[in-house]
C-alpha cells in the first residue's frame, strides 16, 4: 500500500511521524474519509470543502489549495492496485516541543493520507439490515468538526461491537443526534425525517446525497429535530456513511424496528444511491 506523508508517496510501512506530533499527544487534528469508485473520488469537492471547514474551525491554516488536495488524492488513487478505495486524509498541528496545549507558532502541520480497499457493503447486510444499540451522546459541543479526537465515538462504537450490533445511535436531551460513525434517518408517518445540521452532529457527505436524492425523486422529507420516541417508534431507521453507504437498522436495543426487515422506502433510497454513485 502506497501512502503519503508531508509531500512524498512511500510504502505505508515505511512512514512514521514524531512522537511529539500534536495529533498523537492531543488529538489535535482533523480528517476526511473519501469513497472512491472505479478510481473516481465521489463528491471530492464536498469532502475538500468540509476538510477546509474543519481546519478553519481548529484555527489551522490549510496547508494546500483545493487543486493541490485534488492532485494529492489523484496521486494516491493511481498508486493503489484496487479500483474501489477509501481515501483517508489527516492534517494535524504537527510536532512541537516542549509539550504545551497552546498552539505552536508557527505550526508545521503533518499531512498524512492513505487508501484502503473499499468493499461494497455485503449483500446480506443490504438485504437483511443491521442491529443497533443506543447510548446518551456525551461528546463535546462541536461535533460538526471532523476532528481526529474521537474517544467518545470510539467508546460508543465499541459498545455496539460488544453488543453484537453494527452501530450505536446517540441521543442528547431526548433528541437524535447521529450514530457513532454515521448519520441517522428515520421513516415515520410515511416521511423521511432526519436532524438538521448543527454543532451536535457531523454533516455527512452521504447525508447530503440522501437528502438530494429524496428531493430529486419526490420522497416526502422533513429536516428537523427528531425525538427519541419517534426513533423508537419509527417504521424504518437508516444509517448513512461514506464506507457503509445506506444500511437499514432493523433492531434497536433488541427491539424490532417496524416489521424487523428493511422497509420499502429504504429499498427505494438504496436503489437510487446505487444508480447515483457510479
Ligand atoms: N465517519 N457522523 C460521524 C460521527 C462520522 O464519523 C461519519 C463518518 C458520519 C458520516 O459522514 P460521511 O457521510 O461524510 O461519511 C457522520 C467516517 C466514515 C469515519 O470516521 O470512518
TrEMBL record:
One of its GO terms (molecular function) is transaminase activity. Pfam families: Aminotran_4. Keywords: Aminotransferase, Transferase. CDD domains: D-AAT_like (cd01558). InterPro entries: Aminotrans_IV, Aminotransferase-like, BCAT-like_C, BCAT-like_N, Class-IV_PLP-Dep_Aminotrnsfr. The keyword Transferase applies. Belongs to the class-IV pyridoxal-phosphate-dependent aminotransferase family. This is D-amino acid aminotransferase. It comes from Chitiniphilus purpureus. The lineage of its organism: Bacteria, Pseudomonadati, Pseudomonadota, Betaproteobacteria, Neisseriales.
Amino acid at each position: 500500500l502506497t501512502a503519503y506523508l508531508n509531500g512524498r508517496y512511500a510504502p505505508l510501512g515505511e512512514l512514521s511521524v514524531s512522537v511529539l506530533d500534536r495529533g498523537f499527544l492531543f488529538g489535535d487534528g482533523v480528517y476526511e474519509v473519501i469513497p472512491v469508485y472505479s478510481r473516481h473520488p465521489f463528491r471530492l469537492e464536498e469532502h475538500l470543502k468540509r476538510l477546509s471547514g474543519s481546519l478553519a474551525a481548529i484555527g489551522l491554516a490549510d496547508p494546500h489549495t483545493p487543486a493541490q488536495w485534488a492532485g494529492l488524492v489523484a496521486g494516491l488513487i493511481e498508486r493503489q492496485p484496487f479500483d474501489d478505495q477509501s481515501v483517508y486524509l489527516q492534517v494535524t498541528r504537527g510536532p512541537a516541543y516542549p509539550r504545551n496545549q497552546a498552539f505552536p507558532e508557527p505550526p508545521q502541520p503533518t499531512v498524512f493520507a492513505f487508501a484502503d480497499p473499499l468493499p461494497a457493503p455485503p449483500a446480506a447486510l443490504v438485504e437483511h439490515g443491521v442491529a443497533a444499540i443506543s447510548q446518551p451522546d456525551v461528546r463535546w459541543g462541536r461535533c460538526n468538526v471532523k476532528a481526529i479526537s474521537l474517544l467518545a465515538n470510539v467508546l460508543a462504537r465499541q459498545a455496539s461491537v460488544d453488543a453484537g450490533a453494527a452501530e450505536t445511535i446517540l441521543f442528547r436531551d431526548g433528541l437524535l443526534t447521529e450514530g457513532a460513525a454515521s448519520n441517522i434517518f428515520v421513516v415515520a408517518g410515511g416521511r423521511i425525517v432526519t436532524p438538521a445540521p448543527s454543532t451536535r452532529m457531523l454533516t455527512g457527505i452521504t447525508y447530503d446525497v440522501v437528502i438530494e436524492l429524496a428531493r430529486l425523486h419526490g420522497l416526502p422529507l422533513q429536516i428537523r429535530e427528531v425525538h427519541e420516541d419517534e426513533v423508537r417508534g419509527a417504521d424504518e431507521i437508516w444509517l448513512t456513511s461514506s464506507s457503509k453507504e445506506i444500511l437499514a437498522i432493523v433492531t434497536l436495543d433488541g427491539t424490532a424496528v417496524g416489521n424487523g426487515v428493511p422497509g420499502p422506502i429504504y429499498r427505494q433510497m438504496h436503489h437510487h444511491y446505487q444508480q447515483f454513485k457510479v
